[in-house]
Amino acid sequence: MVLANETSDNYQFINRVEYNATQVLVYLTDPHGNMPPDTSQFVYGRIHNASNEYFWMINKSASGQCNGSAKLYIGNKSHSKTSTGTVNFQSGEVYSYTLQAHPDVPGSWGYADINSGPFSGYCVAVTANCQQVFFSRWNADRPFDACSNSVYAWDSALKGPLTPGESFYMKIKVFVPFGIYEGSSNTGYITAIASSV
User: Fold this and answer.
1) d(CA 152, CA 14)
2) Average pLDDT for the chain
3) How much is the pTM?
4) Domain boundaries in the chain?
5) pLDDT tens readout for residues 26-65
6) Mean of the pLDDT values across residues 86-99?
7) Beta bridge partners of 42
8) Angle, vertex CA 118, rays to CA 171 and CA 134, nearest 5
9) Which of 95, 60, 59, 61 is CA-nearest to residue 76?
């Protein structure tokens, strides 16, 4: 599920999670030139965005974790039905972001604002064990609260209170990635939480 605000057609994920690849991707080259990637130093997977997939890699910190000083790499070109995309992270076009330890839970999360590349405008948060990578634009709750790119659909601190009779709207779409079978799917939900001060 992706949302865009009323003045934009830039649809972005509320909160998307991706997992490490479960099989060795023998055609990927890590930033140090190893093919397949050296799993003692790197974890990797795909970001699924509709009919495109972007490969990512994380160079773990010296302690082997992803909660600070680890580096996230995202390929610039997507893998699709007609293109291999960015698979060489040593000499291909990639973007890199250094993860910082979350200030409130420093042992649990690494995070970074993404301000370049195909996922510009997102916050990325990675579990300390490097198993899950989250991308968020419309969720400013922890662990995304440390990022400046994550916002709420209506942020009263920026826009003032939403007064009685006032309204706003968001545009919504569904991106269906590769690997989803044709036909009906389970019901999904988006939860909107409103609070008064």
Assistant:
1) 9
2) 88
3) 0.87
4) 13-153
5) 999 999 999 999 999 999 999 988 778 899 999 999 888 9
6) 94
7) 59
8) 75
9) 95
> Rounded CA gap, 158 and 111, in Å?
23
Q: Which of 100, 60, 97 is nearest to 75 (CA)?
A: 97
Distance of CA 182 to the CA centre of its chain: 25
Instruction: Report how far residue 146's alpha carbon sits from residue 99's, in angstroms, rounded to the nearest whole number.
Output: 12
Q: How far is CA 93 from the centre of its chain?
A: 18
Rounded-to-integer distance, Cα 116 and Cα 126, Å: 18
Closest listed residue to residue 72, CA positions, set 87, 89, 84, 88 = 89
Q: Which residue has the tokens 């970001």?
A: 47
* Residue in the block written with tokens 């968020």: 136
Partner residues linked to 58 by β-bridges? 43, 72
Mean pLDDT of the region 78-85: 87
Is residue 196 packed enough to be buried (19+ CB in 10 Å), middle (13-18) or exposed (0-12)?
exposed
Q: Which amino acid is at 89?
A: F
Taking only the tens place, the pLDDT of each residue in 97-128 is: 999 999 888 788 999 999 999 999 999 999 99
Separation between Cα atoms, residue 169 and residue 192, nearest integer Å? 12
Q: C-alpha angle 70/145/8, rounded to 5°?
A: 105
